[in-house]
Fold this protein.
Amino acid sequence: MRRWNGWGDEQFNLELPIQGRSFLVDRVGSGSPLSDVSLESVLAKVPETRLLADSTVDKLIDTNTEARVRHARGQSLPDWLAMRSGEFGVFPDGVACPESSLDVQKLLQYAQASDIELIPYGGGTSVAGHINPLASDKPVLTVDMGGMNRLIDLDRESQIATFGAGTPGPLVESQLRAHGYTLGHFPQSFELSTIGGWVASRSSGQQSLRYGRIEQLFAGGRVETLKGTLDLPTIPASSAGPDIREMILGSEGRIGLITEVKVRVSRLPEQESFHVVFFPDWDLARTACRKLVQNRTQLSMLRLSSAVETETQLALAGHPHLISMLEKVLSLRGSAEGKCMMTFGLTGSSRQCASAKQEAKRICSEYNGVYTGTRLGKKWAEKRFTMPYLREALWQMGYAVDTLETATDWDNVDNLLGLMEGSLRDGLQAREKSKNERAHVFTHLSHFYAQGCSIYTTYVFRVADSYEETLARWQHLKNTTSELIVRNRGTISHQHGVGKDHAPFLPVEKGELGMLAIRSLCATFDPEGILNPKTLVE
Amino acid sequence: MRRWNGWGDEQFNLELPIQGRSFLVDRVGSGSPLSDVSLESVLAKVPETRLLADSTVDKLIDTNTEARVRHARGQSLPDWLAMRSGEFGVFPDGVACPESSLDVQKLLQYAQASDIELIPYGGGTSVAGHINPLASDKPVLTVDMGGMNRLIDLDRESQIATFGAGTPGPLVESQLRAHGYTLGHFPQSFELSTIGGWVASRSSGQQSLRYGRIEQLFAGGRVETLKGTLDLPTIPASSAGPDIREMILGSEGRIGLITEVKVRVSRLPEQESFHVVFFPDWDLARTACRKLVQNRTQLSMLRLSSAVETETQLALAGHPHLISMLEKVLSLRGSAEGKCMMTFGLTGSSRQCASAKQEAKRICSEYNGVYTGTRLGKKWAEKRFTMPYLREALWQMGYAVDTLETATDWDNVDNLLGLMEGSLRDGLQAREKSKNERAHVFTHLSHFYAQGCSIYTTYVFRVADSYEETLARWQHLKNTTSELIVRNRGTISHQHGVGKDHAPFLPVEKGELGMLAIRSLCATFDPEGILNPKTLVE
């Protein structure tokens, strides 16, 4: 069963190897965990629902307390702290489970007639507060799209698949695979997040180099709004004015509820493999990545870990034999100290993969990269969706983990990365209450464009002796670093979306007139502001 | 000097070979040309300007009659008929020539204060009426962006170039080439159209397979609006809500005037070549194209001519020796009759080109394609921007030429193409006054996506014995076929934009709520509706 207060399935636990533990103790000190409250104690806190009975929708709505608890929070660190402490603050008044666009229309009519706020809910994997209800005079109804999880149509000639918006990643891929197709969209939340959520939050998958972001995959579909049904026709490309699809992408529930998603799918590839190259230092490694993507080498994924992330990953992975062997080889070639690990993926026909592999190896070796084959790449592929489980293991040891991510142009990558890492590493020391605390901070670049790349920074710090103080530490790091990002040419999010947590920083990025455009768009479709209020736009 | 009443430079004329003429006579009958009026007679018709002197902008504005004539029309067939007959109807009251964003701000303030309509003007190459002034109680000021035509900045690391919005294609490429870069955006209007116009009308270039459409190239920039300056930051990709760039792309002057355009540029490629393959029939040829693009073969361009276009091109090209040799070879392989010509481009590193060439040849041969090398491809490349000049030659012989273009999903390509060709070929016969007239109609597919492709249909018909009747014939063909397109899953334009000519058909494509979104966006930035009125949205 799904964990009610953390990531993924209760049955699945990831063990941190002993070397990993001592590595962390060495970096940030020994952790002492905060105690988790029980589900029962939280259930007892849930207030009466404020929803009144309505025969048109009663069958669709569940006001059971456990359903309301399970839909109250996402997966951000403050969400974890709320769930672990039991201090949820607000619960939705009910959870609706529509099974059709018609059901969703009924829910919208009901919400409008009864002045109820609606929050669309996909996999509940938001790390930016998208699905959290806020305190409100109006009742809040969370709409769980999970009942709409089928492949509705597959056009093999045009390679377009139509899905119910609530279809989670594994069901997207398994239903396509049965016909020989793949979508190829693999965000780290893949196990739980949904195709509708990907569109609503403009997500990006690990193999975006081949398949594109969700913007490139989203071909059209259906959105139910308070003004009626918005049908987005599938057209391969058009110069007929602004693209309405682009207004729905990233709309985060403010325009309407996405009920059907049409996506551009691909035939299952002939081949796929992941390869690892080590570089002697960051400069060479980053330049090699830039050259690969600006050269249009046909890779399907590319990821570059900083020296600290490389060291951390190898330590946490707990393969001492493999590592010592690797270090020996690398030290012979002068790249053991400060080494940076690059992983690249090859996907496609055997000719494409062979040609791209040669080209990638040639470019890497120009920057002194040491190619080590597919052994570590296989491990990455096996564990690609399990990293969130590590957070659970670290939590049990008294460590909080969070990530901040952005994207910026190449000329600004090192500058912004340095500012972010510095702000997170030293930020706790700026506060009197945590002046002796430090965070362990490491970064990878994982989405590459000719123009620039994403920056994905992880930080691990010890929980404080109370939930309140732990949250205050997080809030300090999050706020100061988010402000730095948008003041220094970064986007407030490359792949997590805006939600409620990033909304205060959006106006710096979009500017006054950009915000005017977004606000006017939301107000056009939802003048009363009952759809996912305070999300995207404060 | 630029032609005042047609395409391109007066010095440049394209001769139609004698075989081409007899080919056309055979298809639609012998043409007898309408007589063109002189520039002088048109100048005499231009009314007094209604613009009042204003010291803040007087230096920027030219009310000279010739300037007003030269900015009154684009390049659509009705524009040609207006210019050739002298029946312009409406002229702008003046032409402003700003040289900076500040100048544009002044013009906007002046327009708002004095209730004047503004029409942004790039290269004047619209074939959909974008820049045509309409009869209005308010004075109309056309803003020619041609003074802002410089490369302002080049960031080599991030591969981003900043241009003044009025920079025409040749100046974009020559200024980049001096530094070893290319934009790679080559619409057929390349000689005259501008980078700001490409963004405003969402254009696509002949090598979109490699470089992408303008949507993929447009990284950010500056838009002057009535509400202030909209700065679009360059960010490689983002999940931070709806993308404001996508609202400017295709906005056709309704939101503001684009003054600076930042684009994603590429290093000049190592290699480039164009190759021609003949297929025995349309089905095989179209399927080969679909397979090439769905297989992600790294081509830089792809174009497939229907059997009639293939025959027409070979006839109009006037290389009888080459053709008879070619037909001999093809007939040996069973593909002389009904043959379809495909041209594909290879651009990139020598390894990429070699690998893609092998893959392309393998896929083509699976569909019985006969590879003929680069000879015809070289001719295509040499003549790629001269086709509009052919229109002049045909006009002189009494033939009118126009094109209709769309894009649709693969499963609908043949259906829509058949409807369009039928409607254009037989449409004149439905009118009493032209029941004995037929049009010569042919098509190519020239922009390819995994999901579908563009359909570009050319039609040639004899001019009538008057301008009025010629216009009526065009209007009939245009309206009936445009209606067919949007009623049958096509976009009203894949690469020409909406303008005023396509605006009546946009609501079918976008739907009621799509139009609501676009209208609300325009009204947010221009509540009085003084920016390019009736364009995009009627």
